[in-house]
Amino acid sequence: LALFDDERVYRSLGLRFSPEVPPSNEKARWAERMADASTIPAGETLECDVVMVGTGAGGGPVAKELAERGLAVVILEEGKHFGRKDLGGRPTQMMANMYRSAGFTAALGNTVIPIPVGKTVGGTTTINSGTALRPPERVLAAWAARHGADVTWGALEPYYARVEEIMGAGPSSAAALGKPAELLSRGADALGWSHEALARNAPGCDGQGLCCFGCPTEAKRSTNVSFIPAALRAGAQLFTSARVTRVLIDDGTATGVEVARADGATFTVRARAVVLSCGSLHTPALLLRQGLANTSGQLGRNLTIHPATSAIALFDEAVDGHVAVPQGYAIDEFAAEGIMMEGATAPLELTAVALTSFGPGFMDAIGQYRNHLSFGFMIADASSGRVRPGLNGEPLMTYSLVDADVARLRRGMGLLGRLFFAAGAKEIHAAVHGFERLRSMDDVERLANAPLSARSFDLTAYHPLGTARIGADPSTSVVSSTHETHDVLNLFIVDGSNVQGPLYVNPQLTIMALATRAAEHIARRVERLDALSAA
Prior knowledge:
This protein has helices at residues 7-12, 59-68, 91-98, 137-147, 153-167, 174-191, 227-233, 279-290, 348-354, 359-367, 403-422, 441-448, 508-534, and strands spanning 34-36, 45-53, 73-76, 106-108, 113-114, 170-171, 195-197, 199-200, 237-240, 243-250, 253-260, 266-276, 308-314, 329-331, 339-343, 372-379, 385-389, 395-399, 427-430, 437-438, 491-493. It is an alpha/beta fold. Helix 2 (59-68) runs parallel beside helix 13 (508-534).
């Protein structure tokens, strides 16, 4: 990575090294309500109506809704805040700053699958691609029928609409989509496949290609530039570098949290309601360390991740995907069978890691970087995994691919090869052991019929879900439809762990819709407690 993260290399290939960062708005009024946790004296006790743990797709909407209702909200974020002036660094630098373990979080099983997650204000929304899709109605209906959760299309539609409006969800402009979209639509049309520009939460996107490393223009309306600022403008208080170590319990009721500063000293936040929005990996790890909210035995189980892989195709013409939306286009022809094709363009140094050639062939490929098109797909997994508490408070994820998912990955890679060659590709660098270079459709056919295993694929995953799922039955679920845990009063979980996966699409819109609705239940609970106290 360091070898290719060099301005001289970029310039030699005719590439721009630094993003164009517009003037910053760092002195916005809401920033005054944000402080590092080190400003709180050790042993101090803060009091509020609701304490929010996490600022991502779950925590951001809840914090906004509650603060705008007039409740006293304290938001705690383990990571730091990065404003526009901080987002002009190289991808490797931003991964070290904003990703947990610099992006090396992974699930272990019959293969190793990295699951990058954010550790910054905005959580993973700050470093995701911005895709904003509603899941198929049939997926929500099956989820509702299976667990008795009120998650049907009709129940969630007004919340989807509300979130889409706040996020400005819609397809990117043709200019921002660039040449990659043109080539993909060319290939899909030749094959007669359905395709479209993806809806994204970036209405002002200019295609700088850095969505996954913090948007330098703040065009992407991740929660750090949308819901969290709105919460702070409404009176919420945000503390960064604040790691929650345990939930405080009094007679079966959550009454607050213990918080560790970066220097290890602790303070306490007391609240009428505690909301955990740490994500599908860290929420169960936190609760399992305390033995909370798990009489069902389901906490930390049922992990789905939408395993994903990709390939890089070489064309005779310049593609310049590095100055286009990294994930702006989709081939949805095979979505119903659990194969959703979406873009995966990466900067030079990360593309260099992904290339499957070496020696002179590798250098030739790097020299033709501007002519490469990256694209990939994710699958709706039948496999499931588990989260347990690991070392130093971090979660330990185990997950093994079942044969049906290996077959789906093999089929998806074969389809991807067909798409590239139909679009006019000369050759393909495939992330499949034994099929690293595909030079013809004969190679693609051999791959599609090969006896592959889980370890044959170079996989990643970006959508961990399901580890504290919603349900009506306390014996099979962790939280009710109000997002309150079945076991502990006034303890709410609002994040991707509630979502019964796989969703067949990127989940951030669904998490935000559920969070917006959950805020109504949490507000009613606090208001009821206030009324009882007054009486």
